[in-house]
Request: fold
Amino acid sequence: MRYKCIVSYDGTAYAGWQRQNGKRSIQQTIEEALKKIVCQDIKIYASGRTDAQVHARGQVFHFDCDKKFADFRKALNSQLPKDIYILSMEPVADDFHSRFSACYKHYDYLINDGDYDPLMVNYCCQTNRKLDIALMEKFSKIFIGEHDFTSFNATKKAEVENQVRTIYRIDVKRHGNMIKISYYGNGFLRYMVRILSQCLIEAALGNLTEKQLTEMLEAEDKRACHYNGQPQGLYLMEVSYKPYLVAPVAEW
Amino acid sequence: MRYKCIVSYDGTAYAGWQRQNGKRSIQQTIEEALKKIVCQDIKIYASGRTDAQVHARGQVFHFDCDKKFADFRKALNSQLPKDIYILSMEPVADDFHSRFSACYKHYDYLINDGDYDPLMVNYCCQTNRKLDIALMEKFSKIFIGEHDFTSFNATKKAEVENQVRTIYRIDVKRHGNMIKISYYGNGFLRYMVRILSQCLIEAALGNLTEKQLTEMLEAEDKRACHYNGQPQGLYLMEVSYKPYLVAPVAEW
Reply:
């Protein structure tokens, strides 16, 4: 039996999703909790890795398990630490794959542009300077559509040769001092959301013109852009297994 | 020269405001940072203690220091860890006292009554059951005004004999799954806001009638109420040095 799980986690205490020697990872923590219930080693497969300090409200993973449990999700949550929580668990077809079946992903990037907030250290990027979100929204249009995002990610060409991805939609919203940039796209490469977000911040601060940003994109060159946003502001919100039609309306 | 400071902090990593042997406290952390700048021992005096895990967005403390600095606040912030931040620092009259000059305080208590949220573990109380805020608001009226709050706090009578306090206003607001209870009063005893908040939660869950809550208050007896809310939901929002006239409108 294959299970699909949606999981929410606070990435603060972890070295990211993927298992790493000597470091605490989300994957390892969930696999260890699963082992306590199932009494055998089970490997879980995520829709993609999240980096150290990055959060998730809708990461998806799957695993295979032949045993049955009355309330598997509740049992698993009871073995997990407080900062990881399985929101849903359901049996799926054997050919479902959390990564390869995914149609699009939704990421949010949070920025506090008001006074420095010591309570948000691990939950947003803090600029200490006010940002013009109308400008950010205007610049974000450069990224919309199908583009080669080679300039705006850290995945090596040797690893993933084709770096063409489609971004369906970007929303920039403000709630008080908190700015939320929401991205919907068919795939995001390493650091891509953080790099795009930092470009929009730099644009809002007047450090980057529309022409410069367009040239960076067109360069298709890893050396074109040196910006990268802090991981703490990044949230994997949803992995969708239905084609993108109309973007879900992001709510505050 | 006497200085008044307003400080914001994330209480998660601390054993509370007050210095304690062998434990990391907010007071100690700020005093150590001050010492690095002023090069002498300086004692700071807060408007009141906050307990372990409790947060502040407007705690006030004062201290005396004869040295002058170009940007004292910036210098102090540069020596503080990321989870403590001095919002303002200003010279005040020598007879100003953060505790004895205070007129009223504003505390917020945050409750998530939706799905368990692993990202909010340290920042709110989580009930896992929906609460009727109209009921909470109705019950909160019992606490408004001048009352002997002996039944609803953990301060010993031997320590503070007079446990009469005035609550000017209580607001209960919802934003999605997050409920915020705001308290404005001339003084709050140990655990008082947490106990009152848990009473309102129990009332909303149907575990407490209006008659029972009124009887608890009238009992003026430490044994009358056994409820206490989690510290993580509590925020000291403001200490006011002007008499309470019209409550500041709490914003979401």
About this structure: Helices of chain A lie at 26-38, 72-79, 133-140, 192-204, 210-219. Chain A touches chain B at residues 8-10, 55, 57, 77, 82-85, 87, 115-119, 121, 123, 176, 251 (CB under 8 Å). Chain A has a mean pLDDT of 95. Strands of chain A lie at 2-9, 45-46, 55-64, 84-92, 104-112, 125-126, 145-148, 164-175, 178-185, 234-240.
